[in-house]
Request: fold
Amino acid sequence: MRTCLAGCGTAPRRNTAHVPDWTSENVASAPALPPAPVPNPAPSLLRAPTNPPAPSAPAKSTETWVALNRWCKASGLPPPLRLAQTPLPAYALTNSTGAFILRTGSHFAQWEGLECRLGFAPQLIDGQPFVHALDLRKTIEPLLCGPPRCFLIANSQIRQTNGAPPTIVIDPGHGGDDPGTQSVLARRYEKEFTLDWARRLQRLLAINGWQAFLTRTNDVDVPLSNRVAFAEEHKAGLFLSLHFNSAAPDEIQTGLETYCLTPAGMPSSVTRGFSDDQALIFPNNAFDPQNLQLAFQVHRAILQVTGNRDRGVRRARFPGVLRGQQRPAILVEGGYLSNPREASLISDPAYRQKLAEAVARGLGCSLKDES
Reply:
């Protein structure tokens, strides 16, 4: 099977594995443990920094691998609970906000039933689980020890001190001479569907008191740098890029993927054939924790509505529209236009409305007027 660059029909493709399991690092699906239910999280706050620090290299640590038992104790968490010994030892980290499940020897993990990928496979040393220090700081701590899950925007960065509503820039992927991927049905293009999805989301957010701006409002090709500059000009508190996926000519691949930028020093979970220089530091790396929290919140909300296959929250450096963002920013791949079933759904305006409502809920909207 082959997958392509997010939403782009002409980008490099790479081989992927067949049946998903925890022992293979090339698979695209969640571990074989029974998935936890996808709950509706209670509304609560996620705070982004008012004045984000300039991005810098990851802090030097005296140790690269950290004993999980010691980290839990220092973090005020219960000791890791061993769930299984074979085929790979599995452990659960728990607190009042949820459970994070990992396996030694595997990059794949689960956060509250959703697929999560670690930068480095945990190790078993002298019979004890050890986790890479970067994964603790950039993945486990933001999810397990960070603010509660719901991304209600009530902080001074996104909701200005003068009482102005929260501001988001929505980016309908592709446009104009860049049509994106082509649907396997009716030969319609991604650019049409992303724009309609974005317009529907904009209306929902406006009804619920947000300022929502689109990087394009018609069929034009907007350079990636202009999309980044647009968010800066509008002093956006959040940036959300909307796409649809393709694995053409493979018609089997399905599911939802959500992307955020890879932290400096960590390998990307997806490269799509592009170089992946772990030493690179981008402006958006100042928001690594908020990016991950936002990605999981929106990803969860879409899955709850669509029932799509969970292909996970992924980290990558290739989405140029994310790298320069100086605000929490994510990219959502809402389904596969190369799969006949998902292409049929995506072509249905009612389904795109469901997608818009799901994203709005993921951002914390109650959709008081959605009826």
Summary: The longest helix spans residues 288-306.
